[in-house]
Write a structure and sequence with these properties.
The chain is mainly alpha-helical. It has 10 helices and 2 strands; from the N terminus they run ααααββαααααα. The protein has one domain. α2 runs antiparallel to α3 and α2 packs across α9. It starts with 7 loop residues before the first helix and ends with a helix.
Length: 233
């Protein structure tokens, strides 16, 4: 069981997979913070913890069925001449749900229409159901993306646990930063909107490199940080 520890290539695979899981988990954590932000303040900490714990459990459960994850790309149904796999249908449904939630949140933030009155209208368990549903979507997508790096179940599980722990420690700091600067929240919502579009397009086999989205967001983030720094002087 512990033989993998003595091999350098396994440590390299673990490091690469952990970094990849953290990067692929950015959209997951941003959506979680979006939903948690609509809860009363005294419920937000436990909601963040439970949401990320659910993400870790879902990923670990999915990893126990690597063969099933791999077979998700097999043709499943044909609609209007287009062949969809189960993976495609998961991406399509998840992308539509993500776009719907993000569009509503963007509208509320941009127009500020009754925003303060509506922000706490989401019940705790309704928030958790939304988080768990998108956890499943993001988990399936990220694990299928990462599955080519290593087929060692132990390495993949360790990478998932480490990445989720990193997200747990960084989520509160990120939440505070987003709350302090509303313009950062708009940037985060824009990122999630692009991710939603990407999921829908990929369900139809139109693939867009996530690097373009990350590059755009990093560029906008650096510009935003420069603007905020300039305003504070």
């Amino acid at each position: 069981m512990y033989e993998w520890i003595s091999h350098l290539e396994n440590w390299l695979a673990l490091s690469t997979l952990t970094i990849l899981e953290i990067i692929l988990g950015i959209d997951n954590i941003l959506f979680l913070l979006l939903i948690v932000g609509r809860l009363p303040i005294h419920q937000q900490h436990i909601a963040r913890f439970l949401g990320l714990s659910c993400a870790m459990v879902i990923r670990l459960v999915l990893l126990t069925s690597l063969a099933w994850l791999t077979n998700l790309r097999a043709p499943f149904i044909t609609f209007m001449g287009h062949v969809f796999s189960l993976h495609d249908l998961i991406l399509l449904f998840g992308g539509i749900v993500l776009l719907y939630n993000v569009s509503i949140e963007l509208y509320r933030n941009v127009t500020d229409f009754q925003y303060q009155e509506e922000i706490n209208m989401l019940s705790f368990w309704k928030a958790m159901l939304k988080i768990i549903f998108l956890d499943i979507i993001f988990s399936v997508d990220s694990l299928i993306t990462a599955i080519g790096i290593s087929n060692n179940l132990i390495i993949m599980m360790v990478a998932v646990i480490i990445s989720v722990l990193v997200m747990m420690f960084s989520s509160e700091m990120l939440s505070t930063y987003i709350d302090r600067y509303p313009s950062i929240k708009i940037l985060a919502l824009s990122f999630l909107f692009f991710i939603g579009c990407k999921l829908v397009l990929e369900s139809f086999q139109f693939y867009i490199s996530q690097n373009y989205i990350y590059f755009f967001i990093v560029l906008c983030g650096l510009f935003q940080m420069f603007r905020l720094t300039s305003n504070q002087k």
